Amino acid sequence: MPPSLLFLLLTLLLAGSGGAAAAGFDLEEATIDSIHRAFAAGELTSRGLVELYLRRIASLDPELHAIIELDPDGALAAADRADATALSSSGALPPLHGVPMLLKDNIAAAGALNATAGSLAMVGSRAARDAGVVERLRRAGAVLLGTASLSEWCNFRGPGIPAGWSPRGGQGRNPYVPWATTCSSSSGSAIAAAANMAAVTLGTETDGSIMCPSSYNSVVGIKPTVGLTSRSGVIIIAPRMDTVGPITRTVSDAVHVLEAIVGYDPRDEEATRMASKYIPECGYKQFLNIDGLRGKRLGILRKDFFLFPSGSVQEKVFSEHFDIMSKMGAILVDNLEIPSMNVINDVVQSGERALMLAEFKLSLNYYLSELASSHVRSLSDIIEFNKNHPFEERIAEFGQDYLLQSDATNGIGPTEERAILKLNKLCKRGLEKIMKDNQLDAVVAPGASAHSLLAIGGYPAITVPAGYDANGVPFAICFGGLKGSEPKLIEIAYSFEQGTKVRKPPSLQDPVI
Questions:
Q1: Which of 44, 339, 428, 483 is the S-S candidate for 25 at Cβ 3.0 to 4.6 Å?
Q2: pTM for this prediction
Q3: Per the domain annotation, does 388 fall within a domain?
């Protein structure tokens, strides 16, 4: 069904229903905590909230293209169950009880929703079961609205494909400045979070795909340590680097979601077993500490990262932010430099591209083999489908070079093993050495400029809105660290967010709700 028709039907379906269920509740910039307070006060039901978000999506998404697919019947049924549970339960409710959310379109959910990575070749595929993170979200009480758009194949179809574009979702639009980039590849999740189309969203990252969209859409993104969240049932590129994480409007909401989705999964056994040791007792919400910057040693990565023109808005804003962080008790270690950053940023020189090409084929073919039904069962099938079904001339001319190069690989051989050794050396001599030598709690960089530095070692990061440039385009600050450093990063990010309160919602035409 064409998206425009779907949204028209949604508008007709929801017209005249549910408004009373949200009397006194302000949807704009709603948080998980404010939603639960409204539930408890009787100002809102989960069904009413789902209806509000569906109306907002119907109003805004024809311009923003943040959504690929919705399951209104499934979402409303889940919301009704949440409301019934709230009425009958005398105990504590699950942490995400009744909270509507969107999944990136490469995360499988059993039922009506496709998971297609934006590709027409995957339409009609059905997962036999929920992805590991979706199982945890359902247990935590979340209500799944649908899937968010992305760059096709997580920006791994071929060079030159526009950021935020896929055949299924079209071209995503930045809600702040329509001509500005949305960045790749969790673009729809970031757009939807920024424009308040869901309470929270979920994205994935290989190398920048949570950090960059979060930065350009003025939202918070957490890229967890690889293995902290399961990748089972997720279309990924490289197991060494891929991770699933939240994209939300506040650090607190991101932490609520992170806490719900971390943990061991036998379907992603090795990575989740190794990372489970990093999960703190009593979870992550305990680190939402407004005084979290105090005593933290933060390394400012200047060379290769702070590339703003002299006198720019960004230069001025970051200077002000560093003053604020110092006043809040942070110890800033300035002018740090990562050796071989030119190699790390070059996916060919570093060996990252070679490893990604081999791992993508292995990962995708395994994912396809697990589907309950699909008319494509291998990367070769998808390539053939694309040849026979060109979507449009403008996009078809870019081809599918990465898919073809990946299909030509034959597992992890000598080339890939050399790439792994090189990446390991770059990690040890790069981020790990600078953190140890300077006794740092985190490194600081603008936007997603440190994405490759953090990707190659599976390191975590949190991006937080930092400002808006002279044209109104958002930019972020990134706090990154070594594996398992999420507690420190959360303290730092939350304290910075509360000390600066930079984020503002985009100026969108208010939908009739």
A1: 44
A2: 0.96
A3: yes
